[in-house]
Amino acid sequence: MTHGRTVIRNGLVITAADELHVDVLIDGERVVALAATGSPEARAWQADATIDATDCYVIPGGVDAHTHMELPFGGTFASDTFETGTRAAAFGGTTTIVDFAVQSVGHSLREGLDAWHAKAQGNCAIDYAFHMIMSDVTEQSLKEMDLLVEEGVTSFKLFMAYPGVFYSDDGRILRAMQRSAGNGGLIMMHAENGIAIDVLVEQALAAGHTDPRYHGEVRRELLEAEATHRAIQLARVAGSPLYVVHVSAEQAVTELAQARDLGLNVFGETCPQYLFLSTDNLAEPDFEGAKYVCSTPLRPKEHQAALWRGLRTNDLSVVSTDHCPFCFVGQKDLGRGDFSKIPNGLPGVENRMDLLHQAHLDGHISRRRWIELACATPARMFGLYPRKGTIAPGADADIVIFDPRERYTMSAATHHMNVDYSAYEGRQVTGRARTVLSRGAVVVDRGEYLGHAGHGTFVPRATCQYLH
């Protein structure tokens, strides 16, 4: 479907590399030219539609490389479907998600991938891609990894946590890493020592410690750091790259920094919840803390400084959301009286771009680093660049007109995620997506949804672009 020619005028174009006063010409679904605002070249462009971006930033659409739409967990399902979740993403200025297809134990990778294709196809407001969760590392699934890489599913997530569900032991992890070293795939790791955590969970419940705050206390920082260290050493043995998801603890950042100082292809991701929330939220009374139960867990506030520093030094390279929403009423409350039964996950796909802009205003990161962390690096990391993550001739016209001055208050009353609470309820932020284009089509404009389910298409990915 073509959308004719659109020109975006008078904005400040910000990419990971540049900040330029240029106009942007879009033809159909792609960017075709940039030219200095007011220049004869830009003035000569003929277009069917003009978007005036005066006093606004013109930025690449966000790439959220870690979402879980419709994820089955703990006897229930994440409350956002691909339709509601991608629509909310669009409202927040994110135009591509990479979601996790799940292999069930005893089943093939192909069955898991086909099931996720069926959930997403025809339902997404924006473009999407998949990672593959490997729950069952066998000779068969190792062979399937090669086939998935060929068809654009080029990353595989393994879990050192959740024994009996997603957990893989060190031997299975090593085999998967060895396979990815050969086929160019990227291993993503949930690094927490799940075997040890289960012991601490059992002991806490036996002692009558059942409130949500104990979720954070049993999932100890040292057990995240230990697993991160172990994952790095296994990757070294296998000769494979490693991407550690949702890093939350200072000690884990230290492990990543040491590995990167050795020149290893080890990358770290963190999430807004670890940058803006803490164990203070987990300790909120009357079971309110359950809203903030996710794994890795929220940490004491002191850890935030290390995460921000890691984002500045590139020891942490990406900010994704790990969006995995469960309603407070009817889902989170499955864990009343037993914190271990609270479904793990927070809503956030709509909030990430604005929170990171606020982080820029607060002095934590530069404007270009905001775009690097939220758009360009995730696109490069997962083989989507330069089609996604930048504004350049040939790139998809996934573009956000971002008003850096609009102030608003985050709230469940006004967000578009299909969940009955906001993790950031009452938080005031400055800066908001005003107009959002996905492949040249305006999907959100000034708070109005103009997109439709099925506009978003599956995007096959190349391999990690930091390894070539």
What do these coordinates show?
With 468 residues, the protein is α/β, with parallel strands linked by helices. The chain contains 14 helices and 21 strands. The strands form 4 sheets. Strands 8-11-12-13-14-15-16-17 form an 8-stranded parallel sheet. Strands 3-2-7-18-19-20-21 form a 7-stranded mixed sheet. A 4-stranded mixed sheet has the order 5-4-1-6, with no helix packed on it. The model has no long low-confidence stretch (mean pLDDT 97).
Note the beta-strand portion: 15-25%
Number of helices: 14
Biggest sheet descriptor: 8 strands, parallel
State the secondary-structure class.
alpha/beta
Defining traits:
468 residues, alpha/beta, Urease, subunit C, domain 1, TIM Barrel, 2 domains, 7-stranded mixed sheet, 21 strands, 23% strand, globular
In brief:
With 468 residues, this protein is an alpha/beta fold.
Topology:
Elements: E1 5-9, E2 12-14, E3 19-20, E4 22-27, E5 30-36, H1 40-44, E6 49-52, E7 57-60, E8 62-67, E9 72-73, E10 76-77, H2 82-91, E11 94-102, H3 109-120, E12 127-133, H4 139-150, E13 155-159, H5 170-183, E14 186-190, H6 194-206, H7 213-218, H8 221-238, E15 242-244, H9 250-261, E16 266-270, H10 272-276, H11 279-282, H12 303-313, E17 318-319, H13 352-361, H14 367-381, E18 399-409, E19 428-438, E20 441-445, E21 448-449
Helix pairs in contact: 4-5, 5-8, 8-9
